[in-house]
Amino acid sequence: MARNGLKSVGHSKPRRPAGDTVSALARGIAVLRCFSEGTGTLSHGDIARQTGIPKPTVTRLVATLETLGLLRQSAESDRYALAPGVLPLARAYLAGLDVRARARPHMMALADELDASVYLAVCEAPDMVVIEACRSRSNALTSRLDIGSRVPLALSAIGRAYVAALDAPAREALLRTLKAQAGGAWRKEGAALERALRDASLRGYCVSLGESHPDISAAAVSLLTPSGEVMSLNCGGPSFRFTEETLRRRVAPRLRVTVECIAADIGGTVTNASPLRLAASA
Predict the structure, then answer these.
(1) Which of 229, 53, 136 is CA-nearest to residue 44?
(2) Class of domain 18-84 as given by CATH
(3) Could you give the percent of the chain with pLDDT greater than 90?
(4) Where are the domains of the chain?
(5) Considering only the top CATH level, what class is 97-281?
(6) To the nearest 5 percent, what fractions of the chain are helix, strand and coil?
(7) What is the tens place of the pLDDT at every residue in 41-56?
(8) Which of 110, 115, 121 shows the shortest CA–CA distance to 242?
């Protein structure tokens, strides 16, 4: 599944029509995506239920991925987990993200200044995937997300900032995808996201007040890379410290400055620039 960008769902290039894709490859990747942080091992039946792929086909796909070194069978049962073969792919992807190296010093400085956690993430609908993480050196009471962790788009500040940065066609396409995947939960999630997007249009940033995680609140701003990819940066921590007032009066303005520094370093731009400055000075 491709990421949603400003111009299309995915990268800066237009998405290929469905007829140009290879269904067997798409199914194999769907199997791999069943495995995420905290998943543990999965059986053929687990994978079939998550993907909607018939169990006999899942069996063949798993056998192929195991042969390629991307999955491994548990020694105790007929269950599977990711194998070391996925690591070179992850490393190659992360190595190509120059923005991570440029962003990290600024992120670390912000984390230390505000005694917070700071994350940089890209979209992999229906989630945002963390590609860089920095935490305050002095406070252990911070979110424990790490590189590769996923957070829901609709409920997290970092996801909302991403959605707010999209142009209308891309945003509408993404919202249709999120609605289809959320099912009955979309009524509540969609309403919260709509309120967040209205807020972002006025202020230039997004917040999540214990919605993605009951004990964590954060503010987020999005960044457009020179290639046209949207990334989001958030800053936050325990909800009892990072209240709404703290996020809006202190965190958001400092987060904005950090994102501007990163954008200047990589030749990118910050989205929703002027509204935040007005809000910060109000």
Answers:
(1) 53
(2) mainly alpha
(3) 46
(4) 18-84, 97-281
(5) alpha beta
(6) 50, 20, 30
(7) 899 999 999 899 999 9
(8) 115
